[in-house]
Specification:
Oligomer: single chain
Shape: globular
CATH architecture of the largest domain: 3-Layer(aba) Sandwich
Number of helices: 18
Largest sheet: 7 strands, mixed
CATH superfamily of the largest domain: Alpha-D-Glucose-1,6-Bisphosphate, subunit A, domain 3
Distance between the termini: 36 Å
C-alpha cells in the first residue's frame, strides 16, 4: 500500500510539473479533471505519463490528450523546438514548410510549429489549407525547403493525430530529398527534443508565411503529367476521400489530365475529423468503402477509388460479376509496375519484405533491376542505395510511388491517376484490370497474399508472440520443409519463413498496436486454368493462416 501511495504521489507531482509548463488552457483543464478524479483515475493518469511520445516509423503519432504520452500543444511545441534546434545544429539553411490535414488540432499544431521556427529565426512556410500529405512532400523539394512537417495521423482513428518530418536535399541527400526521416536523423531529432528546456522559454514568432494556391496548382500540374496525355480517357470513376482532404486535389488532377470528374460519395466528400460514416478511416478496414462500392454500382462506374484521409494511400475496387471486389495492395502494385514496364519505363523497381514476391519475378523475367527494403516508404525511396534510379516503389498497405521525381513518398493522387490510365486503356481494348491480373497469373503463377493481424491492448503480448515464434519456429509450412529462416534482429524485429512455394513474414506494426503476419502462396497455373489455380492458392493460404495462428499461440 505504501508503494502504491508513493507511486501515486510521484504521478501527481509529474502532472503538476506538466501543468506548470503546459501552454494550452484547455489541456490544463483536461489534466486537472484527471487529477481531481484520483485515486480512481490513477490508471488513466499513469498511462498519460507512461513516457513521452517518441519519433518512430511515422514521426510522432498518438491520441489527442494532455500529458507527455499524447498529442497536444505542449508536445508539439517541444517537438518543433527540438526539430528546429537539430536543423540548426546540422547547419541546415532554408525555410521549414509545414502542411496539415483536417483532423482535430492539426491547424493549431501546424501554426505552433511555424511560430517556433520563426521564433528561432528560421522562415516558415505554411500550406494554404488542409491538404494531402503528398502535396507537403512535393513542396519540400519544389520550394527548396530544409525540411517539412506534416501534421496528420493518416488513417488512424479520429482521436489521434501525428507529426511527420521530411528532409530537403541539403540534409536528406539525393535519395532522401523530400523523403521521411531515417536513422540517425530520427534519433538526433529525438535527442534534441528531450534537450528542450521549459516551454515558456521557447521563443515564438509570427505564424509564418501562408503560401498561395499556386503551390497546389504546381503539384496538380506535375501530377497530371504522370500519365500519357494522348491515351484513352473514356472511364467512369467513383471516388471517396473517406472524410479526408483528398477530394479537391484528386478531382483537379483528374480534370487537368483530361479524365471525366470522378463521382464523389456525397456524405464523405468534405473533410470531417469525426469520420462519421466509417468505424475506422482506413480503406483496408471492413466496411470502410461500403458507400463507395454502392455508388459505383448505382452509377455504372468502371472503377472505384478511395484515398485514406491524408490521401497518400490509394485503394481500388473493380466489378466482379454482380458485386465489387477490393484489390489487394499487392495486386494494384503488380498492375502499376506492369503498366509502367509496358510503357517502357526502365530503372529500379522496389517493394518491401512484406509485399508479394510477384514484382521480383516480373523484374527477373524482364531484365529490370529490383530491390526489397524494410517496410515504410522512407526505405523504399532509398532502395538500391542510388545504384539505379528508382522509377517505381510500392508497399502492400496501399502505398504507391509511380513518379519518384515528383513525390519521393507514397502518393495516392498520382497512383489513382495511373490506375485510371491503365483501366481506360484496357477498356478501349474491351478488357479490364482483372483480365490483366489473369494474364500476369498465367505468366508468373498465382501469387496469393493475405494477412493475419492481431490487435492487442498490451504491447507485451506482441513481444510474447515474437518470442514464441523465435523459440518454437515450425519446421514446415503446408507440409513443405523450410528453405529459409531469417531473423532480422537486432536491426529490425522481423522473422521470415520461406519454403519453395510459400512465405511468411512476421513483425509488429510500426504505427498501431498490432502483430502482423504476411502470408503468401505461389501456385502455378496449369493448362491456362487461372481460376483453378486461384482456388488452390486461396485454400492453401487459409491453411497457412491456421498454421501460423497456432505457431503464435492464438
Amino acid at each position: 500500500m505504501a508503494a502504491d501511495t508513493t507511486d501515486l504521489d510521484e504521478l501527481r507531482e509529474q502532472a503538476r510539473r506538466w501543468l506548470d509548463d503546459d501552454p494550452d488552457p484547455a489541456s490544463r483543464d483536461e489534466l486537472r479533471a484527471v487529477l481531481d478524479g484520483l485515486p480512481g483515475s490513477a490508471p488513466e493518469l499513469a498511462d498519460r505519463f507512461a513516457g513521452p511520445l517518441t519519433f518512430g516509423t511515422a514521426g510522432l503519432r498518438g491520441p489527442l490528450r494532455a500529458g507527455p504520452n499524447g498529442m497536444n500543444l505542449a508536445v508539439v511545441t517541444q517537438a518543433a523546438a527540438g526539430l528546429v534546434a537539430w536543423l540548426a545544429e546540422q547547419g541546415g539553411a532554408g525555410p521549414l514548410v509545414i502542411g496539415y490535414d483536417a483532423r482535430y488540432g492539426s491547424r493549431a499544431f501546424a501554426e505552433r510549429t511555424a511560430q517556433v521556427a520563426t521564433g528561432a529565426g528560421r522562415p516558415a512556410l505554411l500550406l494554404p489549407r488542409p491538404l494531402p500529405t503528398p502535396v507537403l512532400a512535393y513542396a519540400v523539394r519544389h520550394l527548396g525547403a530544409v525540411a517539412g512537417v506534416m501534421v496528420t495521423a493518416s488513417h488512424n482513428p479520429p482521436q489521434d493525430n501525428g507529426y511527420k518530418v521530411y528532409l530537403g536535399a541539403q540534409l536528406g541527400g539525393e535519395l532522401g530529398a523530400g523523403a521521411q526521416i531515417v536513422p540517425p536523423a530520427d534519433a538526433g531529432i529525438e535527442a534534441a527534443i528531450r534537450s528542450v528546456g521549459p516551454l515558456a522559454k521557447v521563443p515564438l514568432g509570427p505564424a509564418g508565411e501562408v503560401l498561395g494556391d499556386d503551390l497546389v496548382a504546381a503539384y496538380v500540374e506535375r501530377a497530371a503529367a504522370v500519365v500519357d496525355p494522348t491515351g484513352p480517357r473514356d472511364l467512369k470513376v467513383a471516388y471517396t476521400p473517406l472524410h479526408g482532404v483528398g477530394a479537391a486535389v484528386l478531382t483537379a488532377a483528374f480534370s487537368r489530365a483530361g479524365f471525366p470528374t470522378p463521382g464523389l460519395v456525397p456524405d464523405q466528400a468534405e473533410p470531417d475529423p469525426a469520420f462519421p460514416t466509417v468505424n475506422f478511416p482506413n480503406p483496408e478496414e471492413p466496411g470502410a468503402v461500403d458507400k463507395l462500392v454502392a455508388l459505383a454500382g448505382a452509377t455504372g462506374a468502371d472503377l472505384a477509388i478511395a484515398n485514406d484521409p491524408d490521401a497518400d494511400r490509394c485503394a481500388v475496387a473493380v466489378p466482379d460479376g454482380s458485386a465489387w471486389r477490393m484489390l489487394r495492395g499487392d495486386e494494384v502494385g503488380a498492375l502499376l509496375a506492369d503498366h509502367l514496364m509496358r510503357r517502357g519505363v526502365t530503372g529500379l523497381y522496389a517493394t518491401t519484405i512484406v509485399s508479394s514476391s510477384l514484382l521480383r519475378a516480373m523484374c527477373a523475367a524482364r531484365g529490370l533491376p529490383y530491390d526489397e527494403t524494410l517496410t515504410g516508404f522512407k526505405w523504399i525511396v532509398r532502395a538500391g542505395g542510388g545504384t539505379q534510379p528508382l522509377v517505381f516503389g510500392y508497399e502492400e498497405a496501399l502505398g504507391y510511388c509511380v513518379a519518384p521525381e515528383h513525390v519521393r513518398d507514397k502518393d495516392g493522387i498520382t497512383a489513382a491517376l495511373t490506375v485510371a490510365e491503365l483501366a481506360a486503356g484496357l477498356k478501349a481494348e474491351g478488357r479490364t484490370l482483372t483480365d490483366r491480373l489473369d494474364e500476369l497469373a498465367a505468366e508468373f503463377g498465382v501469387h496469393h497474399t493475405d494477412q493475419l493481424s492481431v490487435r492487442v491492448d498490451d504491447l507485451r503480448e506482441i513481444a510474447g508472440m515474437m518470442a514464441r515464434i523465435r523459440a518454437n519456429t515450425p519446421g514446415t509450412l503446408l507440409g513443405h520443409p523450410l528453405t529459409e529462416v531469417k531473423d532480422l534482429l537486432p536491426g529490425a524485429d522481423v522473422v521470415i519463413l520461406r519454403t519453395d512455394t510459400a512465405r511468411v513474414v512476421i513483425r509488429p506494426s510500426g504505427t498501431e498496436p498490432k502483430l502482423k503476419a504476411y502470408l503468401e502462396v505461389v501456385e502455378p497455373v496449369a493448362d491456362g486454368d487461372v481460376p483453378a489455380a486461384r482456388a488452390r492458392a486461396a485454400t492453401a493460404v487459409s491453411a497457412l493462416r491456421t498454421e501460423i495462428a497456432t505457431a503464435l499461440g492464438l
